[in-house]
Every structure is written in structure tokens, then in C-alpha cells.
Amino acid sequence: MKAVIISGLSGAGKSQAVKHMEDFGFYCVDNLPPILIPKFMELCNQTQGKIEKIALVIDIRGGLFFNDLSKSLKDLQDLGHQFEVLFLDASDEVLVKRFKETRRSHPLSPEASISEGIEKEREMLKDLKKMANNIIDTTRLIPSQLKEELKSIYIEGNDSNNLMISIVSFGFKHGIPIDSDLVFDVRFLPNPYYDEELRDFTGDDEVIRDYVMNSPVSVTFVNKLFDLMDFLIPHYIKEGKNQLVLAIGCTGGRHRSVTISHLMHQQLKAKGYRVILNHRDAFIGKERKKQ
């Protein structure tokens, strides 16, 4: 039987995750008191294969019962039950924003600031996060991307190495993404903006990609960038990093940065990494023009 314990920060997407796991055929239970986990696993094992996959959401909503989690997980191991821990995380800024958008208070600080509740929760969950087999940072994920991540890990069996790579194209005139780990400035590459026939297209369009990459400088840069990533990423994985944000910027964030971001996304996907792509500024103030 395949068992997944889902936990993580409030607002990080556990409710979405358990819905997706149901879609994948998992028998799901939300907010099960941890002390009941061993008994529940035993009952599932007695179904003679009728229940083969289960997902249990365990988090701080359990209140005092949450303190039993460590003992319950140890009991599972002692009884020989196999399970994995999935931990969902997100940046403090995004968590605060999500709480405000839903007009909810944080369960650990109903009368205080949301930030205080997040800080308390991180402290409570730090040991569980260390136990996690998989960590998904949902800071930049939309629900469909979270579903793809879960499918990749639990249905397709892709070993994620716990590193989520986010590639963000942006325009320097709109500011550098504040959560960037690595920033690459591609403003030295050929700029389609100065061709009026190309100006309204973006790097999403083949005509722009051809223009940008029809230059020895662009080809050399991309190859060197690929080589750098081939060197860095295994070291980040070895160090235990679980979120890497690559920000690639040009002047407006519409042409060159989008082109290079697409190429980087394709390269890393082909190597089996977990990677998502976001064009932050490509369509600011404009409708997309189709070829």
C-alpha cells in the first residue's frame, strides 16, 4: 500500500493537494488526528487490496492532537508500515497575501498578525519538514502546476530530488523579482523592439525567438548558461536546496528574456528536473499578438 502524509504551512496548498490526490485515485482523509494514523493504516491493510493508495492531511488544525504526530510516525515505522511525507511550503509574503485574499485569520494567531502565526507554525513544523521525502514550494505555482508536480512524483514516479526550479522572465524597468536566487541580464542580445514589425510580438512567438537566436552571441551565451546550470544544480541538490529561482531579464521583459527563459525551461525539463516557467512582464499593458 502506498501512503502519503501531507503536511505543511497553512495557506501553502494542502487542500488543493488532497483534491488532486483524490483525482489520482488516493483514498484521502483530511485533518485526521495523528494518534489514529497507525490504526487507520492497519484498517486499510485489512481491505485485501481494495484500498491501495491513501493520503492523509495532518497539520496544526489538530490542535493538541498535533503533538502526537512524531510518536505516531515512529509507531508506523516500528510496525513496518511504509509511508512518505509530503511538505508544502511557500514564502511568507505569498502566505500573507493568500490569507488576506480569503479574509481568513491564521489558526495560530486569530487575534494577532498573520505574520506572527506563520512564524509560530514554521517553528512547530521544522522537524516534520526535515523528515519530508518531498517538499513542494507553491510560492509561484498555480493549482494546475501543483497537480502536475504531484502527478510527476506520485503517479509517474519521478524522483524529484526535492529541488523545484522556477524560471522567471522579467523586465528591469519593472524591477528585479525579489525572490531571485540567480539573476541573468540579457540586455546585450539583439533586441526585436527596434523592429516595428516585431515589436508587438513576444518571446512566446517563433518569429521573436528566431530573431534573438540568429546571432552567434546569443548562441554562445545560451550554451555557456546551460553549462553553468549543469555545474550548479547538482551542487544545489547536494546542499539540500529545495527552491531555486532563476530570473532572466531584459529591458521590458517581452522579447529577449522570454526567449532565453523558454530555452532554459526546455533544457532543464529534458534533463528531468522539476521546473516551472513564468513570464512576469511579457504582457503588461498589451494584448498578445498572434502570428
From TrEMBL:
<dbReference type="InterPro" id="IPR053931">
    <property type="entry name" value="RapZ_C"/>
</dbReference>
<dbReference type="InterPro" id="IPR027417">
    <property type="entry name" value="P-loop_NTPase"/>
</dbReference>
<feature type="binding site">
    <location>
        <begin position="8"/>
        <end position="15"/>
    </location>
    <ligand>
        <name>ATP</name>
    </ligand>
</feature>
<feature type="domain" description="RapZ-like N-terminal">
    <location>
        <begin position="1"/>
        <end position="153"/>
    </location>
</feature>
<dbReference type="InterPro" id="IPR005337">
    <property type="entry name" value="RapZ-like"/>
</dbReference>
<dbReference type="InterPro" id="IPR053930">
    <property type="entry name" value="RapZ-like_N"/>
</dbReference>
<dbReference type="Pfam" id="PF03668">
    <property type="entry name" value="RapZ-like_N"/>
</dbReference>
<protein>
    <submittedName>
        <fullName>RNase adapter RapZ</fullName>
    </submittedName>
</protein>
<feature type="binding site">
    <location>
        <begin position="59"/>
        <end position="62"/>
    </location>
    <ligand>
        <name>GTP</name>
    </ligand>
</feature>
<keyword id="KW-0547">Nucleotide-binding</keyword>
<keyword id="KW-0342">GTP-binding</keyword>
<dbReference type="GO" id="GO:0005525">
    <property type="term" value="F:GTP binding"/>
</dbReference>
<keyword id="KW-0067">ATP-binding</keyword>
<feature type="domain" description="RapZ C-terminal">
    <location>
        <begin position="164"/>
        <end position="281"/>
    </location>
</feature>
<dbReference type="GO" id="GO:0005524">
    <property type="term" value="F:ATP binding"/>
</dbReference>
<dbReference type="Pfam" id="PF22740">
    <property type="entry name" value="PapZ_C"/>
</dbReference>
